[in-house]
Amino acid sequence: MNKSSDAHRMEKIVSLCKRRGFIFQSSEIYGGLNGCWDYGPLGVELKRNLKNYWWRIMVHGRDDVVGLDGSILMNRAVWKASGHEDTFTDPMVDCRSCKARLRADQLVEKKGIKQCPNCGGKDLTAPRAFNLMFKTYVGATEDESSITYLRPETAQAIFVQFKNVLEVSRKKLPFGIAQIGKAFRNEINPRNFTFRSREFEQMELEYFCRTEEGMQWLDYWKEERLKFYENIGIARDNLHALTVPDEERAFYSKGTYDIEYDFPFGRQELEGVAYRTDYDLSQHQKASGKSLEYFDEETKQRFIPHVVEPSAGVDRTVLALICEAYSEDEAPDEKGKMETRIVLRFHPRIAPIKCAVFPLLKNKEPLVAKAKEIVAFLRPHMYVFYDETGAIGRRYRRQDEIGTPFSVTVDFETLGEKDPALRDTVTLRDRDSMKQERVPVKDLSSILVSRIS
Amino acid sequence: MNKSSDAHRMEKIVSLCKRRGFIFQSSEIYGGLNGCWDYGPLGVELKRNLKNYWWRIMVHGRDDVVGLDGSILMNRAVWKASGHEDTFTDPMVDCRSCKARLRADQLVEKKGIKQCPNCGGKDLTAPRAFNLMFKTYVGATEDESSITYLRPETAQAIFVQFKNVLEVSRKKLPFGIAQIGKAFRNEINPRNFTFRSREFEQMELEYFCRTEEGMQWLDYWKEERLKFYENIGIARDNLHALTVPDEERAFYSKGTYDIEYDFPFGRQELEGVAYRTDYDLSQHQKASGKSLEYFDEETKQRFIPHVVEPSAGVDRTVLALICEAYSEDEAPDEKGKMETRIVLRFHPRIAPIKCAVFPLLKNKEPLVAKAKEIVAFLRPHMYVFYDETGAIGRRYRRQDEIGTPFSVTVDFETLGEKDPALRDTVTLRDRDSMKQERVPVKDLSSILVSRIS
């Protein structure tokens, strides 16, 4: 697709997100807060399904990984040791003409002269280092001694608790510690909807291993993570594992892959899989004076393990899922006239609502009662949604637009009023094919459970 | 129990939490950060089970509630309108003798004279208002115009998104918006382990209703919430619904219950169920200039709904679950000698690990293979844990101490080596009764699923 159709597609996605309650601007009634977003009724379900699936695959599904949930506020010493206080900065430039504040790499260059991309001005300040961590004060005084930061990544909580987790979990190398949680970066220019935001959520695994095994685990995790994205419905063709070249990697990393996705606004990173060596644990051991070594019972050696980190952005992945799912096709309306149908083709595993249940008519009490009975019967197994308003075709369209994979309609056949053989059967309609099948109510739960897990 | 045995009990609980990986001090290797805690491998599972059960009951289990996940950083105008910027304060006093910083209500009074509880000093400053919100700066400049706060409660995100959620969800009154998320308060004196911390998580429902129905929904939600705590294993006798007296309620509240629990350190609040009237929506309507009214299609009236708020503390509830579960009894060791057994009697629904699987001996390959096969077979249905080290009695004790309700042992009977009729059966052991039953492997999953849900 070309640039303008991609931009148009993105506009439609953003509009759908707001209109149907996936994502709202934070504090919208007060003009918002740049780089902060709220997940509405459907967005919160999509995000929960993604995070729960990640946890299921990365923690519960494995013998070699345990979880952690660290606090967002940590002792400032963590950020001194990790290097974030000194070096987690972007170079920033001010335009003296239009007062715009710019990341130095966003300046435009014409005939060798740097210009402001806003006004074309050439009167620019020298670049200054701008720290991306949000600062706050803990305790009753606001002074140097009470400073700390909102964590800019979740990883450090794992490194500083490495020894505690090792002791309580009795794990042997290789093993991992997984965490899902919020992180914060005071981005100079948040952009691309929720893609680059100031408040975001990460799903990170720190996988500790022997020194000599780092490179092989790096490749293993790159492949595992690509499979993960395929398993939540992202086509392999839209995913790219970029080998980050030497000069662009963090200085402590011996190898990094960026897993990228083809967003409508360009190919962008979903996840970094980085071989961080023993850098982080070594830094914290030096700064804290506490041993973060591993004792190998076989070789009787003590050493600081190396680590491979698959670090995924929750919000970016949610956005990729929505972009991937968004599609338009042609379908007949109630009167048989063809119209454009918007469909979110979510994998049933991550779709916010798994099944919608409709009585054919809302003013026929037996239909309504039967539909509500089916809701109650499905509810322990999945998130279901009851809707009785509007023509049945419109109700299907509303579910298509939010990606509900299955809809069940209770009609007069269900009540046995036409053909006694069809009593207690319902119409099960598939979102993608729009095909309908007749299914006994008693089999509904097992049919649906097998299709959504 | 008396004070000293309660204090001793609390010490044992705190020690178990650290030793077995429920809760660690945040940034522990750097001396911690007062009022911040990390959840270890078992704590994170317990917390997830609690939050997921709350979501299942409060959102998925109902037609009248939808979810939301708002950002922690919001526009400062939210906190001006809600009153937090001006009035969310504690009066604070400094002791000039020992430099202690104290909440005014923590001073001791002897013969009518206020004294420092630390040093007994009487040279105290006048009380000053200390705002409990953590301040930070958003954007590239640190000045008055870029100030905002970490949210001190999750509720306001729901109020400011009320209109958006109403529109996208097409709900009619009464209906609710639910949210789970972190909030932050710069407590002068964090205390009682994780009970009063600076970073904490809330599970809140704002339930909107007609003006005249507020008091009845208040009572409804008090009862529902009491049931919830019973359903996660807290004995009704240890729960108390306190009617907050007029003079102690927030000025805008027409009625509030505190749901309290008998912690070893005293009776303390788990959840507040507050009838907040139309105060919050009215404040935001006034401050934002945006209508937050509800249009009643039947009466053709427009009005600001009233709201009842059941607001629970995640960390407090996790702590209550651990305190409630902690028990000691006498059980025979491997040699039949009676010893003290520590057991966390968690309700299976919220227990971190649902089932442990053991091969009787780790050096018998067929036992190990069969045990691993059972792990793989149970894993899609629940969080299972494989352990092969130590005598079987010790393995049971380790699971008792972390509250695993069921353990499965694969022995020579399982392999059919003794009695062919017992081939493919295992020992299923119950944590509380310590009774063992012989169960066919093929029935294991359905037996366990029915006992843990």
Give a structural overview.
Two copies of one chain form a homodimer. With 453 residues, chain A is α+β, with helices and mostly antiparallel strands. Helix content of chain A is 30%, strand content 29%. Chain A has twelve helices and 25 strands. Chain A has helices spanning 3-19, 41-60, 76-81, 84-87, 155-160, 162-169, 214-231, 279-288, 314-325, 365-378, 392-402, 441-452; strands at residues 23-25, 37-39, 65-67, 89-94, 101-103, 108-110, 113-115, 128-131, 135-137, 147-149, 175-184, 199-209, 239-243, 255-263, 266-277, 294-296, 301-303, 306-313, 326-332, 338-344, 355-359, 384-386, 406-410, 425-430, 436-440. In chain A, the strands form eight sheets. In chain A, strands 3-11-12-18-15-14-13 form a seven-stranded mixed sheet, sandwiched between helices. Chain A has a five-stranded mixed sheet with strand order 22-21-23-24-25, sandwiched between helices. A three-stranded antiparallel sheet of chain A has the order 5-4-8. In chain A, strand 14 (255-263) and strand 15 form a beta hairpin. In chain A, helix 2 (41-60) packs across helix 9 (314-325). The mean pLDDT of chain A is 95. At the A-B interface, strand 2, helix 2, strand 9, helix 6 and helix 8 of A face strand 2, helix 2, strand 3, strand 9 and helix 6 of B.
